Amino acid sequence: MTTILVVDDSNSIRDMVSFTLKSAGYNTVEANDGVQGLSKAGDNTVDLVISDVNMPNMDGITLCQELRKLPDFRFTPILMLTTESSGEMKQKGKAAGATGWLVKPFNPEKLLSTIKRVVR
Amino acid sequence: MDIQSLVDNVPVEGEYSLEGIDFITSGEQFLTFQLAQEQYGVDILCVEEIRSWEQPTIIPNSPSYIKGVINMRGIIVPIIDLRMKFSIGEAVYNETTVVVVLTVENKHITRTIGFVVDAVSDVLNAEENEILNAPVFGGCISQHYIKGLVNVGDNIVTLLNVQALQSIEPHKH
Amino acid sequence: MTIDLSQFVPTFLEESFEGLALMEASLLDLENGDSETINSIFRAAHSIKGGAGTFGFSDVSEFTHLVETLLDEMRDGRRDIKPIDIELLLESVDCIRLMIEAIKDDVSFEKTKIEQIARLLTETLAVGVTTAKSGTVDPKDNNDNLVVDEPINLQESSDEKVKWLIKFIPEHHLIQTGNDPLLLFNALADLGEVGVVGFSTDLPSLSDIDAEEVYLSWELSLVTTASQAEIIEVFEWVEDECLLTLTRVASAEAAIKNVAAQPYVETQASIVSAEPAETARTAVVTNEADIKLEQTSVASAIENVSVVSAKTSEPSSPTKAKADAGSIRVGVDKVDSLINLVGELVITQSMLSELGNDFDLSKIEKLSSGLEQLLQNTKELQESVMRIRMLPISFAFNRFPRLVHDLSNKTGKAIELITQGEQTELDKTVMEQIGDPLTHLVRNAIDHGIEPAEVRLANNKPEKGTVALNAYHQGGSIVIEINDDGGGINRQAVFNKAVEKGIVDVNSTLTDSQVFDLIFEPGFSTAEKVSDISGRGVGMDVVKKNIQALGGRIQVESKQGIGTTVKINLPLTLAILDGQLVKVGSETYIIPLITIVESLQVRTDFINRVSGDMVLYRLREDNVPVIPIYKLFNIEAVITEVENALLVVVEADGQKIGLLVDDLLAQQQVVIKSLNDNYQQVEGISGATILGDGSVAMILDVPGMITMALRSAQQYQPHNHQAQPQFEGVQP
Q: Are residues C516 and C606 both part of a single domain?
């Protein structure tokens, strides 16, 4: 079963993303900041990481950099949730090793169709 | 699901069972009970349970027909003596005296109130066209409590409007 | 699949309120804060904007976007943090809160203020940044890797099928960022029919192959109704890491559509003109059946839309009900402790039932210790369950930094706010209802308590006034103190005012605390000037009423020139009450312990009968009116003579009365049940409870009983209430 790690400090967004993914048959692991995300990533076999960018303690960009340092996460797709459609944030994400990004606001349908590009 | 299993699932309280309930019926069903020599009926779907009489806790300065409140599985339920409210017969409390607990939902507010009657009689099936309008004159029961009349053999059963029964007049100071 | 987003809205609202509170607190603390302070404000705004956008509250997200932009500039150091901007941001927080509250209550909000602040934000942003910074460039604008043959009709998706040729040459490191060409092609396949041809021309010799690199390139054909933008979007994440070429090959039905669907003509025209001539010919021979088919599908699409809109408008009222019900976020530790306790309870239960299997008298000791354990378990479980409803009082305190900040600006008084005991926990319901009274008291302290700076300096006090909020537990209740180091209450002024208002007799001698209590009388205000902060003296009586409604007490202590302390005593929870059980006739009543002054056996020589039927009992210097419960409630009692009775002296509204009872029973905690659910409010009764034997007992409402007693006293002596000074000031 495909397991997706959802990292977001906003409960409502995290609930929504996780609920949507679960409804589509994915398994989810949730974390509310980068630090927790990193620790949950270590405890689980994760096929995809979806992470917010702006978070307390450890932001999404740093999380991405840290994950890429782990052998298990060298090729794991990592998607950043961003409210900025500007290129700056995307390029920052890319530089940190992110696979792609999802621009907020997005709806559940969009989320599901988009992640098909990176998970089976 | 067969009908027998439905019947088996009907909750039965105390010694009074509702075996008479017929599940294959088009009309409405009423639980009938006695006040003195007269027969009355209430919509069976409103009947929460039938309890034997117990002394309730007095509500201060309430009208005499409000006997007080009882504890029904953690819910505080007021008890109204219908015989006193309608001035029918004598308010005596003996072995057959029972409390019919009725629940009505009205505008999302559910109210549960117990009514003291002399005895529970039967379950009555009544088609829409069998329910007659009550005569406009006389009687000590105000018209708005009465839903209609049904002829059962030689007797008449007065069907009561449960919603109206449940409205409680504010206390007078 | 459709997911109902409304289920996440309550969570969004809740976290938005928390975010706003955090923004407010951090904004007020910005001058003392570090870079993390502004970061956390930015993050809160950012989350609100993101959530609002996601859940369809565009007003909120648009407004918050302005706030976020301003904060972003401050965060980056592009803009200096100026006090005027902080004020603007604080007002923006108010605006967002207004909008979120409107969503919560399912009402529309007042647009004027929001538009005004939005305008101010826009103007501020337009003035520009303090430090210049290079503008950001969208990579899409200067993307050399993406080649599109016909850069037309980028957004429009149509129902016609178009064939595209896609050349995809990834850079070698593509898979290292987690992208997989195969999955991209799968995603393309979702858009239509895909054909793939792979090229291995770049493949190095086997010894040079790095397994983590991509050496292949592909040519794909795609027959789809999707727009060009939708196709490009599939490659969105890799467009910087590949060479991508899109060529439009054919459009099967464009020409016919041009004729059949007039409204499309304008948008389609340019496509047709750009179409290779060959395609146009193919299109002409397409038969008419397709058109009909298309029209039906459009019709059904419209139908679908209307169905959807009907669905979305319908459930608005249930959503509101849900929001009203409220929710509590409970810490995992609290839940864990509950689970542990339930575990213990199960163990005790199995031990007891084991014991019951073959019980004999030799095991009585075991039984009694088992029951003891059960009692302990139940008590702990009850406390744990209650703790679930408990929140730290910081939830009520966190509004005050902002309030003090604003009032400080308004009054020109420099004020420091000190809060202590923010972690003291309080029932959620009590918390919600204590906010307004506390606000009023803090306003009062600043407006009437703290003196203007020049007065303070003249009195050798520090120029900056102090308002302190302190919360702590004391026995079964929580105490909240509001302390100011202002001028204190002028005892004589209060007394004179009370005489002037006819609240007390000019000749009465009152203790200090009795005088200070007068400020809680309806219509009392000592402010010389009416200010727009504390208003017209409406309030203190309401404050007291609200606190009493929560089963609490309020007291004032004040020293002239030194300051004033208002002390509020509140029960920890509204669901449980510490009560004294008393017997009157066949009935058991519960008197809230918090109202009881003392219980005593009546001493005949302390009884005085005045003005006919009224019995006064001398309790030290007080004359306490004796109220027989049986008379008040019109029931039968065993003891009707004052001389043999027990008296429970209770106090409410500063008025003591002695309740005549037959017997004093145990003191115990009772769970409060409402009479309103199935009955109605009963005068003199605040609720009911179920006793250990399953019977119902009424809980006495002491202030209500005093009102009843007063009324019946007036009925007996309509012109004689001057003779009972004790009742003065509580007349309704």
A: no
Nearest to B56 by CA among C709, C576, C679, C704: C679
Please list every residue in chain B whose beta carbon sits closer than 8 Å to the beta carbon of residue C712: none
* pTM, to two decimals: 0.54
Q: Measured between CA atoms, how close is A55 to chain C, in angstroms?
A: 7
Tell whether C532 and C451 lie within a shared domain.
yes
Is B42 a residue whose pLDDT tops 90? yes
Quick one: three-class SS letters along C556-603? Answer: EEEECCCEEEEEEEEECCCCEEEEEEEEECCEEEEEEHHHEEEEEECC
Rounded Cα–Cα distance for residues C188 and C192 (Å): 7
Is the CB of residue C227 less than 8 Å from the CB of residue C148?
A: no
Cβ neighbour number for residue C508 with a 10 Å cutoff: 13
Q: Which CATH superfamily is domain B3-166 in?
A: CheA-289, Domain 4 (2.40.50.180)
Nearest to C177 among A81, A94, A108 (CB): A94
Are C187 and C263 within one domain?
Answer: yes
**pLDDT at position C468, please?**
94
Instruction: Give the distance from residue C480's alpha carbon to the nearest chain B alpha carbon, in angstroms.
Output: 34
ipTM value: 0.87
CA–CA distance, C268 with C256 (Å, rounded to integer): 11
Stronger pLDDT, C294 or C561, i.e. the higher one: C561
For residue B57, which residues of chain C lie inside 8 Å, CB to CB?
587, 688, 695-698
- 3-state SS of C317-372? HHHHHHHHHCCCCCCHHHHHHHHHHHHHHHHHHHHHHHHHHCCCHHHHHHHHHHHH
Q: Note the pLDDT of residue B26.
A: 61
**Cross-chain residue pair C683–B171, CB shorter than 8 Å:** yes
Question: What is the CATH classification number for the domain harbouring C104?
Answer: 1.20.120.160
Contacts of C635 in chain B (CB under 8 A): 58, 60
pLDDT of residue C510: 82
B78, B88 Cβ separation under 8 angstroms: no
**Is C46 part of the annotated catalytic residue set?**
yes
In this predicted structure, the answer to whether residue C137 has a pLDDT above a threshold of 50 is no
Whether C36 sits among the annotated catalytic residues: the reply is: no
- Cα–Cα distance between C616 and C727 in angstroms, integer? 12
Instruction: Give me the pLDDT at residue B59, please.
Output: 94
Residue C55's contacts (CB-CB under 8 Å, 6 or more residues apart) are A12, A16, A105, C5, C8, C9, C12
Query: Do C50 and A105 count as a contact with CB atoms less than 8 A apart?
Result: yes
Do residue A117 and residue C177 have CB atoms under 8 angstroms apart? no
C360: its two tokens: 């004999």
> What pLDDT digit, counting tens, does each position of C180-230 carry?
888 888 888 888 888 888 888 878 888 888 888 888 888 888 888 888 888
CA distance C357 to chain B (A): 28
pLDDT score of C265 more than 60 = no
Give the mutation candidate from C636, C679, C681, C693 for the B interface (greatest B CB count, under 10 A): C679
Domain boundary among C97, C127, C157: C127
From B171, B167, B130, select the one nearest B145 (Cα to Cα): B167
Q: Are the beta carbons of B70 and C673 closer than 8 angstroms? A: no
Asked if pLDDT for residue C654 goes beyond 70, the answer is yes
Q: Is residue C168 part of a domain?
A: yes
Fold of the domain built from segment(s) A3-115: Rossmann fold (3.40.50)
Instruction: Specify whether C398 is catalytic.
Output: no
| Closest partner CB to C696 (pick from B57, B112, B170) | B57
* Distance in angstroms (rounded) separating the CA atoms of residues C96 and C16: 9
- Which range marks the domain in which residue C206 is found? 146-286
Say if CB B34 and CB B117 are below 8 A apart.
yes
Q: Which of C337-351, C443-457, C713-727 has the lowest mean pLDDT?
A: C713-727
Same domain, yes or no: C364 and C267? no
Nearest one of C436, C418, C398, C392 to C26, comparing CA atoms: C398
Do both C421 and C565 map to the same domain? yes
Segment (H or E) for C500: helix C491-500
